[in-house]
């Protein structure tokens, strides 16, 4: 399966396919006013062009270009983000008139280097969110073109011919989150529960710095997520609050956080995908002592993973076993439940 540069935006990836195959309808990635659309997707008539690419690579492109906050959830099903992959490459549209507010920005030096290295130029994903090129530390240029020929203008830019009508970008209030999504920072509901018990026993970690990282005014506010005013345990602490504290502890008390992960968690590989359930494998943290075969937690994907496995104790030792099967079997060493 094919792959390409992992720092490209999904807008650019789709646009380049239109240019290569001479498809002038780019309404699915660029609006009629010359801005990147907010939710790019492939045309129904071109969906087959992307089937040759590794699905994990397509996922990285789709998630790198995502603006939403759903990328930040830790205690959640790692397969939820597949909706972004589905929206970009598998749903298909005939044309698009979607909302668009992101100006098309680029760094000429980067594009020249890309042409030398890859043989083609492309728009990087961080150009969607920044006004500066992170590699060359200079202001990005903003495309300024006749709306009657957006396709031809962008084709010239990616071929290394930069029209003089481009202008320097101004400092805007764009989202500063531009790093590629780390889809591996996902943990099970059972690890959220053990973290809640762990933090109650280590309240000294909730200090002013942690409260500041949590975005609240004082320590008492953070403590109120775990205890009532009369000191009784707050059993209804939401996972959103747990995620906020979890991230704060991770940033402020690195050693304590690492100790918690080492003592209370283990990593398994969760298969997911759209073409097949095991086209993408995502590392997933679960509670080390949890018995997954008896868990009734609907939000956790592990029970589904177990249910799709097949295990025959009489099979040959040379049987081919996929990576996820190996991880699960070595983690639990309980073969009968693979039925």
Protein architecture, described:
By secondary structure, this protein is an alpha+beta fold. It is built from 12 helices and 7 strands. It has helices spanning about 10-20, 55-65, 80-90, 110-120, 150-160, 190-200, 210-215, 220-225, 240-250, 255-265, 300-310, 325-330, and strands at about 35, 100-105, 105, 140, 165-170, 265-270, 280-285. The strands form 3 sheets. It has a 3-stranded antiparallel β-sheet. Strands 1-2 form a two-stranded antiparallel ribbon. It has a two-stranded antiparallel ribbon with strand order 6-7. Strand 6 and strand 7 (about 280-285) form a beta hairpin. Residues about 175-180, about 310-320 and about 330-339 have low confidence and may be disordered.
Topology readout:
Layout: H1 10-20, E1 35-37, H2 55-64, H3 82-89, E2 100-103, E3 105-106, H4 108-118, E4 141-142, H5 150-158, E5 167-168, H6 189-201, H7 208-213, H8 219-223, H9 239-252, H10 254-264, E6 265-272, E7 280-287, H11 302-308, H12 323-332
Antiparallel strand pairs: 1-2, 3-4, 4-5, 6-7
Helix pairs in contact: 2-3, 6-9, 9-10
